[in-house]
Amino acid sequence: MTRIIDHPVLGKLDDRNKIPFTFDGKEYGAYENETIAAALLANGIRTLRVHEEGGTPRGIYCNIGHCMECRVNVNGQANVRACLTVVKEKMVVESGKQHPNIVKRMVEKQ
């Protein structure tokens, strides 16, 4: 996927600095003021996490912060919305992992 390189409101992409960040241990590049979601999408990343219960892939859905599908871990902090969070230099982003559903396990035991 490519980025828009000349936008009438946002300006030219060439005018922005490139910022390194990592996603799941691999280094990628973003541009200043670009969200994690936009940077990952531009780098060909579609799956940002897996569903807590079923393990199915999840990615960018609404891209305005309402749906919570784009949650990732950022610098060790869980459940950060990639569509609302701007990339910072050397930011460490990890995909959301499937965790056991403790509530469901407790109900099944009863």
UniProtKB/TrEMBL annotation:
* Entry keywords, A to Z: Oxidoreductase
Top-level taxon of the source organism: Bacteria
| Record bears the keyword Oxidoreductase | yes
Reply yes or no: does the keyword Oxidoreductase apply.
yes
Q: Which SUPFAM superfamilies match?
A: 2Fe-2S ferredoxin-like
The protein's name is: (2Fe-2S)-binding protein
